[in-house]
Each structure stands twice: as C-alpha cells, then as structure tokens.
Amino acid sequence: MKEIEEFLRENKPVVKDNPTFLLDAQRRMEAVEGIKAEVDRQHSRGRVALIIALVAGLAAGILVTALTYLYPIDAQTVGDGLLQSVRLFLQSYRQYLVYPVALLAVILSLLLSKWRKAAF
Amino acid sequence: MTQERFISLVRAQQEPLRRFLLALCAGDAALADDLAQDALVRAYVASGSFLGLSKFSTWLFRIAYNCYVDHCRKRRPEAVPVEEAVSLKADDSADRAFRYQQLYQALERLPEKEKAAIALFYFEDMSIKEISAILEMPQGTVKYQLSMGRQHLKQHLQP
C-alpha cells in the first residue's frame, strides 16, 4: 500500500495555466447577476400590483359598507323594479335581440381565430 | 457577499478546485474546467447561504463534487483518449506522461466516492474531517473509502 500512496503523492495531476478561467467565471457571474436583477424587478412589480389591489379592495369595501349604512335602501323593491324594467325592455325589443347576439358571435369567433394564430 | 469578495476567495482556490475536478474527470481538462465554472456560478448564486461555519474551500469543494455527481448522473463518463488524458507541460518527460496515463486510467475505474476521497486526501492534502464535510459522509466511511480506493488502485495499476 505504501507504494500506492507514494505513487499518488508523487503524481498529483497538473492543471494547465488558463488565464481566462477567472474572467470566464466572472462573465458568467455577471450574466447570473443580470438574471437575478430582472427576476427581482418582476417580483417587486408583482408585489406592488398585489398591494395596490389589496388597498383598492379594502377601500371599495369600506366605501360600500359606509354607503349602505348612510343611505339604507329596500333591497326587495329595488330588485323587483330592476327585474320589471329588464322584462319590459326584452319584450319591447325582442325582434332586435338577434343582431347583438350575432355580432357577439362574430367578435368571439374573430378573437378565437387570432388567439389560435398567436399560439402557433 | 459581493462579487469582488467572492472572486478574491475563489482566486486562491481555483487551482486546487480545477485539480480536484481534473482527477475526478480522469484527466479531461476541458470537462474539468467546465464543471469548475459551473461550480463557481452555483457557489456564487448560493453565496448568501454561506455562513462561514466551515472553511470556504470545504464549501466550494462540496459544490464542485455535487456538480460532478450531477454530470455523472446525466451521462456516463466517456473513455478519455490517451493524448487528452494527461494535462502536462511541454517539458514533462514521456515516463511522467506514461505514469499520468496509468493513474488516470486507474482513477477512471474507481467508484465516484472512492475517487473523490483519494483525490482530496492525496492530491489536495485534506484532512479526513474536511473530506467528511465535503463528501457528506462520516469520518469512518471516508477512511473505508480511502482504504477501498487504495486497494482498487493497486489492482488497476498492477501490470
């Protein structure tokens, strides 16, 4: 075993001089740094959007709650009145209802065909 | 850790690191340098998690070993051609080149852990404790891997 140990100690692998080794490593690190910065930027943008949505939701909730307390309404009356007006509207214009439905169908089919193209 | 600080720490370790990977890659210098670069990038990305509880070199060598293990899992190491296997300077003798060739061929036939333990102990002069931290195995297992490695090398090096 002693010869093996001596053989190993006497024949340590020799690395070739590579003056660009550290420069290459530094270049890779800078690239990683760029990616990290971009990911951080996107994360912070997402965080800001989340905070804005949270604050806006909270403010809207407070506002609606305050309004219901300040100006109480009879929900039953409002609901019945709304349904009544919708019913009347549909009865009056039922012959024209086919046009907006057809228009909606055309728009939807155009949008779908565009999305499919974008997917390819 | 800033990039400058990291580079300054790596500067002192680059040669041992490349030599360790060169031994693991059985003399394939291009592959060893590629793995060393990967290890440095991984280490840099994880440098925030380096708490200084172990030596920087121990931490860096562990990452390098993991890079090598990942590489081996991706594809089996190819046989290294004789002329590429030995990274020698121009003035090295033919006898020395022959010994390197023998060494790399024998190392290539060792299991990963034995090869790593042999390289760290004999080429990098590391202690059993350090090797145990790098290879993440108990000190007794490191001694066993060294003993088995020596036995296997003896078999492979015998004509």
Biggest sheet details of chain A: none
What is the level-2 CATH architecture name of chain B?
Up-down Bundle
Largest interface: A-B, 24 and 37 residues
What does the largest sheet of chain B look like?
none
Structural class of chain B: mainly alpha
Q: How would the global form of chain B be characterised?
A: globular
Number of helices of chain A: 4
- The share of residues in extended strands of chain B comes to under 5%
CATH superfamily of chain B: PhyR, sigma-like (SL) domain
Q: Which radius of gyration of chain B do the C-alpha atoms yield?
A: 16 Å
Could you state the order of secondary-structure elements of chain B as H and E?
A: HHHHHHHH
The parts of chain B where pLDDT drops under 50 for at least 5 residues are none
The total of beta strands of chain B comes to 0
The CATH topology of chain B turns out to be Butyryl-CoA Dehydrogenase, subunit A, domain 3
So what's the oligomer here?
A: heterodimer
What is the arithmetic mean of pLDDT of chain A? 86
Our Rg estimate of chain A from Cα atoms comes to 35 Å
Instruction: Name the shape of chain A in a single word.
Output: elongated
Work out the helicity level of chain A.
over 70%
Structure description:
- The complex is a heterodimer of chains A (120) and B (159).
- With 120 residues, chain A is mostly helical.
- Chain A has four helices and no strands.
- Chain A has helices at residues 2-10, 21-70, 75-92, 98-119.
- Chain A starts with a helix and ends with a helix.
- Helices cover 73% and strands 0% of the residues of chain B.
- Chain B is built from eight helices and no strands.
- The N and C termini of chain B lie far apart (51 Å).
- The model of chain B has no long low-confidence stretch (mean pLDDT 85).
